[in-house]
Amino acid sequence: MPDRRSRGSTSGGAARTRRSKTPPPAELPDLSQYGRLAEYNRKRHFGVTPEPAAKIRTREAGHPLQFVIQKHRAGHLHYDFRLEHRGVMLSWAIPKGPSPDPAVKRLAMETEPHPLDYNQFEGVIPEGEYGGGTVMIWDKGVWAPATQHGLGDEDETERQYRKGDLKFVLLGEKVAGSWVLVRTGRERQWLLIKHRDEYTSNDDLTVTRPLSAVSGRTMAEIARAAGATPRQLQQAAATDPAMPAAPVEPPRKTSARGRPSHRPSRPA
After folding, report:
1. Which among 47, 117, 118, 155 is least buried, having the fewest CB atoms inside 10 angstroms?
2. Which residues are registered as beta bridge partners of 89?
3. What is the C-alpha R_g of the chain?
4. If we measure between CA atoms, which residue out of 111, 110, 115, 90 comes closest to residue 37?
5. pLDDT tens across 156-179, in order?
């Protein structure tokens, strides 16, 4: 009488053999080497997008900390606000841009940290890529965390950031003075608020100062130069405020010889 256990063992072995022919699922790439930039790196295909690849830079202590604000027309228009901290740029997306009016609180959604090299990126992210659309360097400058007794260091930045109450001063070409980022309690949701000082204003800087801080170009000009698709170009152009027309000088009177006449006209 045949041994049923042998048949079961053989059958099970065959089943295991059949199952082993199925390739194992592909493992996710190991991004641990990128540390705080792992999420940034995972979202992008650097063979396609012109954005800089993830790289944490080490800089000497005491150097001026950089900040940048990039106007970004992706799925929707927003302003990416970035503060340098320990080799990366802490980042928030501000849908309406910063306001120098202390009465105006701007929603700021925290996003993944970006590399310092991103501060020089102005151009177009291809369609189909994460954040696809036109990017302008709208403002740039230096920043420092603020305390009751003056300016702080990066340890102070870390302490305030973890607390969810980050006070700082900016010295940019468009925005300056004392500000605060306050976490609202929801994941990654903050508010950007201007403190009252000599830089307080009721101006909408996104309208009155619309051009790139590095190239002086409009969003449409950036998109066109970077080879944007017609759809991306149309979207970029729609974010440019109407530019005031240049004043037209009245024509000068000319003499009979065709030269400008500088003599005042005689009264009638």
Report:
1. 47
2. 84, 114
3. 28
4. 115
5. 999 999 999 999 999 999 999 999
